[in-house]
Structures are given as structure tokens and as C-alpha cells.
Amino acid sequence: MQLTKYNHATVVLEQDGTTLVIDPGVFTPESADLVRAAAGVLITHEHPDHVDLEALRAGLAAQPDLVVRAPQAVVDQLGDPDGRVVAVSAGDSFDVGPFPVRVFGTEHAVIHPDVPTIANVGYLIGGTVFHPGDAYLEPGVPVATLLVPTSGPWTKTEHAVDYVRAVAPERAVQIHELLLSEVGQQMTVGMLGEDGLGGVPVSILPAGTTIAV
Predict the structure, then answer these.
(1) How far apart are CA 51 and CA 10, in angstroms?
(2) Whether pTM exceeds 0.90
(3) 65-87 burial by CB neighbour count: b if 16+ within 10 A, else e?
(4) Residues facing 211 on adjacent strands
């Protein structure tokens, strides 16, 4: 399985000629093209940095086999063309081509007590790659590659370190990084990495970089 990191929270997985896109948001200039080329799209929650609604609408219109899976709030905004926008929640499992997918979690991390909490799910793909969306979500199962958020109004280094320790992946890849400068990214990854407090290898992948997972 190949993983390509794009801006912020957008990740693309490819295997056996099938492409799966996770969280094509408005901060990713390629979102519309990625969606049109995908067999499936997974959305963790409704914030625009994780879901570009116009890109999804265009992709659904252009690609008759495309299926989008997301929490109900996203389905409500997109509608349900031909049953190809499917609501998911914790405990669900399904396949997208060669990718088995399991769904975990219920809520977005708390930004502030005065900000209402919304639905947020995480996805375990192929039994190896876990995308938690906007939450330090522990799936409670082994994870080979953890996509770990490093910036946002809800993140905190202390919690991120504890999250990496709790999940204990074989390795982690930084996502959700656009609010950090290059120096900030390096510092945060240093704290989370195997020579820091997290104790596992953590990679910074420039947008467009592909690795095997």
C-alpha cells in the first residue's frame, strides 16, 4: 500500500490500482482532482479543512462509481445522490476495493467549552494506517502507521505525546500541520519522535510525498 501526504489533513492511499482519499479539504489545492480519481472518499468530520464540499459534489457528478463515507452531518450537507454518500459511525466496517476500513470514535476534540462539539470519526485502513481526524482518538487495536495531528486550536503537545505513547504505533506521520511554521513542525516532531518523548519514529512528509506503508 502506498500513502501520499497532501496539504494539512489530506492523505491518499493506493493499492492494486484503487485510490482511497481521506479528508480532501479546502487547504488542499488538488482536492477536486484527487476526488475525481478516487474509488472512495472518507471524511472524518465537517470542518472545511477536512472536507471541500464543492470538490466532493463535482467528483460525485463526474465519477459515477465514487462512494463518499462521512458522519451524518456531512451527508446532510451533500445529500445522497444514488446512495453514494453514506453515513458512518463507530463500529462500522466496509471495504473499498482492496482496502478493509474500520470506523472508530464519536466526537471532535474540545476546542473550548463555549464551542459546541461536533461528530468526528477515525478510520483504520488495511489494518495498518489510522487517521484520527481532529481528536487524539485511541482505536484500541494495533496500528502500524499513525497519522498524528500537530497543529490546530484543539491540539497540545502534552496531549499529543501521551496520544502517541498510548497508541504505540510502529511509526507516525505528521498531519494537520499548516498552523505551524517549519521550525514549529520540526520542534513538535522532535518532541513526539523516537529521540523525544513519544518514543516512535515520526516523519514530516512534504505535500506530494509518497511512502510505502
Answers:
(1) 9
(2) yes
(3) ebbbbbbeebbeebeeeeebbee
(4) 3
Q: How many CA atoms lie within 13 A of 193 on its CB side?
A: 13
Q: What is the pLDDT of residue 79?
A: 85
Cell 484500541 found at: 140
DSSP 119: B
User: What sign does the dihedral 36-38-39-43 (CA atoms) show?
Assistant: negative
Question: pLDDT tens for residues 142-156?
Answer: 999 999 999 999 999
Question: Around 81, how many Cα atoms within 13 Å sit in the side-chain half-sphere?
Answer: 15
pLDDT in tens, 22-63: 999 999 999 999 999 999 999 999 999 999 999 999 999 999
Spell out, as residue ranges, where the chain has pLDDT lower than 70: none
Alpha carbon distances (Å) from 43 to 36, 182, 198: 15, 27, 27
Nearest to 41 by CA among 96, 105, 82: 96
Output phi, psi for 48, to 5 deg. -65, -20
The x, y and z cell numbers of residue 132, run together, are 484520527
Q: Which amino acid is at 167?
A: V
